User: What shape does this take?
Amino acid sequence: MIKLKQSLLAGFFSIITITILTILTYKTEYGVFLLASFGSSMVLLYGYPESPFAQPKNVFFGHLVTAITGLIFLHFVPLPIYLIIPLAVGFGVGLMILLNVTHPPAGGNPIIVIIGSVSFDYLLSPVISGSLIIIIFAIMVNRYILKKSYPIQK
Assistant: This one.
């Protein structure tokens, strides 16, 4: 019964959070707030908020580090796409681990950045703005609605 409740609440709050990002992206002129990897961030933020990978520092900097890595490879490494994608993913994953900001969903960001051939503006919107929104929602939902200790205090 506990697993059913956990799954239903995680699904419900994922719908709410992604709906907000979708509305901001498609129904306003404020910019792009959706990043495909935010969908898998929902699994951690609402399903397993006690995980070290779900903590705000990891979510924010994991997405940021891997998006920057993808942008650097896209714009400054003159290799074919079939080489820069795996290199960027590998470097991004390695940097997250080295910097202690691992957030597994962010491992896909270099692929998104390179395939989308995005500009450095992509860091502000959707990476930074979207990450901040999902972190704020996760704190509100986990702490104030679900009464969980989130973020985990060390």
